[in-house]
Amino acid sequence: MTTLDRRKFLKVAGAGGAATAVAACDQPTAPAVHEAMPNLSWRMTSSFPKSLDTIYGAAETFARVVREMTDGRFQIQVFAGGELVGGLQAADSVTDGTVEMAHTASYYYWGKDPTFAIPTCIPFGLNCRMQNAWMYDGGGIDLVNKFYAGYNIYGLPGGNTGAQMGGWFRREINAAEDWKGLKIRIAGFGGAILSRLGAVPQQIAGGDIYPALEKGTIDAAEWVGPYDDEKLGFHRVARYYYYPGWWEGQAMLHFFINLEKWNSLPKAYQAIIRAAAKTADTTMMAGYDMQNPGAIRRLARAGAILRPFSEEVLDACFKASNDAYAELTANNANFKTIYEAMTAVRAEGYLWFQLSEQTMDTYMMIQQRKDAL
Amino acid sequence: MTTLDRRKFLKVAGAGGAATAVAACDQPTAPAVHEAMPNLSWRMTSSFPKSLDTIYGAAETFARVVREMTDGRFQIQVFAGGELVGGLQAADSVTDGTVEMAHTASYYYWGKDPTFAIPTCIPFGLNCRMQNAWMYDGGGIDLVNKFYAGYNIYGLPGGNTGAQMGGWFRREINAAEDWKGLKIRIAGFGGAILSRLGAVPQQIAGGDIYPALEKGTIDAAEWVGPYDDEKLGFHRVARYYYYPGWWEGQAMLHFFINLEKWNSLPKAYQAIIRAAAKTADTTMMAGYDMQNPGAIRRLARAGAILRPFSEEVLDACFKASNDAYAELTANNANFKTIYEAMTAVRAEGYLWFQLSEQTMDTYMMIQQRKDAL
């Protein structure tokens, strides 16, 4: 029986519990058939290479947890970016059903519609705690899925990097004017904002960034944060490591599932997928938070010069971002709806987080600098 | 068939798949029997009242998600604190098997051994992100379970409040001396540290705090944070709302499972419980982060006076905490092992979090104060 035949069979048998029981008794040597937990085999394309073990690993965690929870009945095979389809074709391959699902960054698809950027992050958006609050308790998942449905996609949060670094620069950024003419490797929507400041965003694949920085073909490059950046060795060819990464105050990845495939799943499998996605989401963030501290220490020891963007520089970037949002909300109803839901969480969140969270962290950071921890 | 009989039956039938299939065919009207996914019915006692909907709700979320993922085969009935056993007897009732599991705060049991406090929180410990990093990626869960095993318990993280507030005070705390003689309602290990500063910790149940504050029987009371505190109306009888809640920079709840019951579960059910616990953990934190902002606005409008503890006051509290930790690590090997694992995460974490996370949040908080969000 082919996989397709079996699925058709299950669909029929699944209509009634009694029919299933009879079928199982008629074929005592066949594997048990459970209408609520059928045998399924899916393919998931990741947008990421295996070398980004924390990010790519979130897809593998998801697949493993689904397999364990279903006692092996629901198998999901993970493919790295490029193995089945290119990393940036992940959404299209879910929309058209080439694969059942993908693990990707929604903002890769902002060229189709800038609204795709918001569920990942937009410059000066939310921090990780607020993003989770919005998604898991504030209706964010349902709201975003009204938009994704237009692309035949059901999306669930599936990992986070936390606040990224602002990237590696061959020269200092001391004033807003210093962005002008700066050739910077940056992916996605953040580059569109930087171009409003006069920078010249470059789209360069991960493996090609180092030589471009070394030769001076580009002046700067943003990638992720210490743990991933260290592997590519950027500190050897661009000494200034700027922060904060204001275009990615957090970056939430998503599992994109073909909407018809999602709707055809038994309720138990939908629940299992939701919990597996939360597992991937939580453990990827935990992974970065465990790995980044050691990496930043090693990078600083190896000569990286840590530099904060000044408030004046950030003010110019914030203004450029808000100008872009004003235009987008005026012209794009989807963007407006989701943007305004996000900013409502942001305004409230940054009031509350000033109190215990920020003052406690600040006090502990003072102790860290005193070497008292 | 009683529940006990059914479990015995399942245990026997579960020994071989073929036996199960035959049993199912012999009884076509009985529910299907799956050796990997048996019908189970458990009881979970919560340490919390239903009125703490965010905390108590995490146990209900857990039970619902387990039920959904198993298509109703694994049922867990949740009981509020006091319905089956008292809130502070939850751990004992898991140890002796009175219930299969509990939802509780590990630090309630610090009187048995102060080591119980660390997996929840100890003063000047970790923030929520670091606690998750330690637990989910840094080996924290396994390390803590070596300790819990001595109490016949398997523990999994199951919810967080984030950084709590420092509580409601009838008079100001302007210097470390002001703690002396202060009668403050505070639960658990934090009270032991406060008593080193000269405060007089009081153990008072939630419903009795308001009248005690009103009459002046106590001078101060800590509960949780804005969302829960608002319901009890403390702002009407103690105006000063202090922060940060340095004894609870985060507070992680746990699901405690009877160790034999845990070990007897099929692997698929163990995986389901792990994912359901992560779901409860993530969604409880998200719930507080969505609900606290509105509550703090309302409390401030209703007359609460927000007051930060000064750095001098915090320095005295930090010293008192460290003095206690020095004594405990000298005398308690379990405490020493887990404390040192935690502080290793803390020292590294507070280095890294100073960069993008803190500077991004700080910039956004400045915009919030400018009313620019």
TrEMBL record, chains A, B:
Signal sequence region: none
MF term (GO), any: metal ion binding
Binding-site residues, Na(+): W223
UniProt cross-references to Gene3D superfamilies, sorted A to Z: Bacterial extracellular solute-binding protein, family 7, Periplasmic binding protein-like II
Keyword annotations: Metal-binding, Signal
Pfam families assigned: DctP
Keyword Transmembrane (UniProt): no
Alphabetical list of NCBIfam families matching this protein: TAT_signal_seq (TIGR01409), TRAP_S1 (NF037995)
Residue positions binding substrate: Q164, R185, E222, E248
Alphabetized InterPro entries for the sequence: DctP_fam (IPR018389), SBP_TakP-like (IPR026289), TakP/all3028 (IPR041722), TAT_signal (IPR006311), TAT_signal_bac_arc (IPR019546), TRAP_DctP_sf (IPR038404)
Keyword Protein biosynthesis: no
Protein name: ABC transporter substrate-binding protein
Superkingdom per UniProt: Bacteria
BP GO terms, sorted: organic acid transport; transmembrane transport
GO CC, one annotated term: tripartite ATP-independent periplasmic transporter complex
Organism for this UniProt entry: Hyphomicrobium nitrativorans NL23
